Amino acid sequence: MFFDRPDAGERALLVHCDFFSAPNHSAAALSAQTALSAPSAGSSEPTDQDHTETVIEYAPCVTEFFDLARSAGVDPIDLVSARRKKPTPKFFIGTGKVEEIKALVEQHNIDVVMFNHALSPSQERNLEQELCCKVLDRTGLILDIFARRARSHAGKLQVELAQLQHISTRLVRGWTHLERQKGGIGLRGPGESQLETDRRLLRERIKWINGRLTKVNSQRQQGRRARKRAELPTIALVGYTNAGKSTLFNRISQATVYAADQLFATLDPTLRSVDLPRLGKIILADTVGFVRHLPHQLVAAFKATLEEASEADLLLHVIDASAEEVEENIRAVDEVLVEIGAGEIPVLHVMNKIDCLPAVQPHTDKAGAGDEDLPYRVWLSAHDGEGIDGLVASLAELLGGTFWRGTLCLAPSESKLRSRLYSVGAVTTESMSEQGEYQLDLCFPRDDLARLMASANVPLPD
Fold first, then answer.
1. How many CA atoms lie within 13 A of 35 on its CB side?
2. Cβ-count burial of 141 within 10 angstroms (0-12 exposed, 13-18 middle, 19+ buried)?
3. CATH of the domain at 99
4. Which residues does 397 contact at the CB level (< 8 Å), separation at least 6?
5. What is the pTM (predicted TM-score) of this model?
6. How far is the C-alpha of 310 from the C-alpha of 124, rounded, in Å?
7. Per the domain annotation, does 277 fall within a domain?
8. Domain that holds residue 174
9. Residue 220 counted as domain residue
10. Which residue in 325, 322, 388 sits closest to 356, CA to CA?
11. Number of domains in the chain
């Protein structure tokens, strides 16, 4: 890939800026957990409305920033925090904070400075020239993690496309030493031609990747059409990164998809056919996790992957119930779902990791009254398996409208049809009548059952 990723073990300095609109704005972003304290050595007096924050604990959004940095393989040495009304065009932060960061870079021998914000190409260039070290913004950091996590050929192509789109506006950074060369006969230097060559190569590579991804999308569309013809309901797991989607996927499907306590452990969609009690055969899809301020390049590049969610019959929104910013995480996921066209698909909220909440027991929350009393939230622990039965029961209630449930009586001569009903998992219980008939209690998709019985010339009871 073209992206210049930080080497593992690099020493990183993190920068987070809290923006406010009024002087008495509460610095709520600086009030929760992290293990690192605010920098003290090497600091200088800030200017341009920067304010020194001497605090020990930071908000979950800053804790997440540390986790992102560690996921990229770097060693976060310190954190510089600032408060401003708005970013500055040149450095994003004030000149006083730039001097403070410069002193810390020299003091701690920092290799890379990471910002918890999106920087413009000119701001990155200006900061690198001033700090004399590599500067990476939040978008570049997430792209780096995606590059490390990608495993499949399609996933690597999607990440590379997002990387190329990101660095296409930053190419000039590598040729600033040639910018002073004049034009004209006898004065033309290699700078302009080399820059244009790089841009042309990037355009050609992006075009080629888009072509390959179009084929990948076409293949996945064929698979989705085949599943629709078979009329198998599709359930997609979505949620904030590290909410436990892959662990829940493995618990339900008995699969061995890679699951770890790290950000963006899953990039490539995984689909499994699963037989669930009272529901029959369904397709379960595990998807990439979301995050706040997910770069638009990634949303566009991973369109083929995210379409597994937008084409599903039901979304299981897996939520880390033990997280401090639960509501903010839910909103971040909802925003991405709307962006990919999945905002109108029915959602069942799955409150995961209740094993981290000792006072919470597995249960199901329902809304409505009477026969319309449907589940909308399930509390469980994918790690321990507690509450999985409640989730399966809730899925059966939500998707059961397309299923035929009842008792079918078959004569002994129709044992072949009985065998086929067992083979597709349609039979829940069986008994024998006094006349020697098979009495089968069935739960199976209505259309599939009608086709199966029509092939045996047996009518489906109303």
1. 4
2. buried
3. 3.40.50.11060
4. 374, 375
5. 0.68
6. 35
7. yes
8. 149-179+190-214
9. no
10. 322
11. 4
Tell me the residue length of the chain.
Answer: 462
* 2 located within any domain: no
pLDDT digit string (tens) for the chain, length 462 residues:
444 444 556 889 999 998 875 444 333 333 333 334 333 333 444 444 444 443 345 566 788 888 888 888 888 999 999 888 889 999 999 999 999 999 999 999 999 999 998 898 899 999 999 999 999 998 888 888 888 777 777 778 888 888 888 877 777 644 444 444 444 445 445 555 667 777 788 888 889 988 888 887 777 777 766 666 556 788 999 988 888 888 898 889 886 665 655 566 566 677 888 888 767 778 888 887 787 777 666 676 666 667 778 888 899 999 999 988 889 889 988 988 888 888 889 999 999 999 999 889 999 998 765 545 788 999 999 999 999 999 988 888 888 656 677 888 888 888 888 888 888 777 878 888 888 888 888 877 677 778 788 888 887 776
Decide: 304 and 158 in contact? Cβ < 8 Å. Answer: yes
The dihedral formed by the CA atoms of 69, 75, 80 and 83, expressed in degrees to the nearest 10 = 10
Give CA–CA dist 85/103, Å, rounded: 24
Lateral strand order in the sheet of 363-367: 270-276, 280-286, 234-239, 314-320, 347-352, 374-379, 363-367
One domain for residues 208 and 252: no
50 and 167 share a domain?
Answer: no
The amino acid that residue 233 corresponds to is: P
The token pair that represents 68 in the structure block: 């992102």
